[in-house]
Amino acid sequence: MIEKRIFRHKEKLDSWPLIEGVKPIRICVGRHEYFEYLDNAIEDPNTHFLDWNNNIQNTSSEYSDRNKYGIMTTSIDSSDKYSPEYLNCTGILLVGENASGETISCLTHQNSVYIADSNLIDIFNAKILKLFEDFKNQTQSGTVEILTFGGNLLCPKSRNFLHRNINEKCISVFNQIPRNIFGPKIEDSYDDLGDSVFFDTKNRRLFFMRNESIENENE
């Protein structure tokens, strides 16, 4: 059981309509040291783990290959998800309920600069579109929320990435724009280890762990 400790809490994200009885995603934001109690959950072998910098993940996914597609993704299932060190990278979180009412999720980690410099944009767009389509097919209408986060305003390729690529694919499938949270950065993110994300799928609770100051984070 994950301890319910909240540092900066958003009760709901109201841009995605949910049917009665479906809990909206709750978000907890703080510095890494605030969430040390999550270590056991993060290290649980059942937690799906993405390590972009070292191209390591503990599950397989047809959408995921950093070198071929420019993206790493977890599988779509009911497990918890974790990925560290979102430096200039962006991430997508998808959550919804399948036909049996079980909450399922998928987490991504991608670097827009790497995608652009490696001429992978068309391949990436095709994979993102398929991911959205497959997630929609596996979930019930009125239970889905999609969030995006990360990037860096100091990097034009990162700054424009969400709007030009991820958003338009999401609109084409869900007729909704993903809710963007906690980003992009306005500082040189290489001064620290970047942001880390842990998602408690069953409880639809997102833990967003920052190294930079959150004092001026938008409410």
Features:
disordered C terminus, seven-stranded mixed β-sheet, five-stranded mixed β-sheet, 6 helices, 219 residues, alpha+beta, 12 strands, 23% helix, 60s Ribosomal Protein L30, Chain: A
Question: What topology emerges from the helices and strands here?
Answer:
Elements: E1 9-10, E2 26-31, H1 39-43, E3 48-51, E4 56-57, H2 66-69, E5 71-73, E6 81-86, E7 90-97, E8 103-110, H3 112-117, H4 121-138, E9 145-150, H5 156-159, H6 161-174, E10 179-181, E11 195-200, E12 205-210
Parallel strand pairs: 2-12, 3-6, 9-10
Antiparallel strand pairs: 1-2, 3-4, 5-8, 6-11, 7-8, 7-9, 11-12
Helix pairs in contact: 4-6
Description:
By secondary structure, the protein is of the alpha+beta class. It has a single domain (24-210), classed as 60s Ribosomal Protein L30, Chain: A (2-Layer Sandwich). It is built from six helices and twelve strands. The chain has helices spanning 39-43, 66-69, 112-117, 121-138, 156-159, 161-174; strands at 9-10, 26-31, 48-51, 56-57, 71-73, 81-86, 90-97, 103-110, 145-150, 179-181, 195-200, 205-210. The strands form two sheets. Strands 1-2-12-11-6-3-4 form a seven-stranded mixed beta sheet, with no helix packed on it. Strands 5-8-7-9-10 form a five-stranded mixed beta sheet. The protein starts with 8 loop residues before the first strand and ends in a 9-residue tail after the last strand.
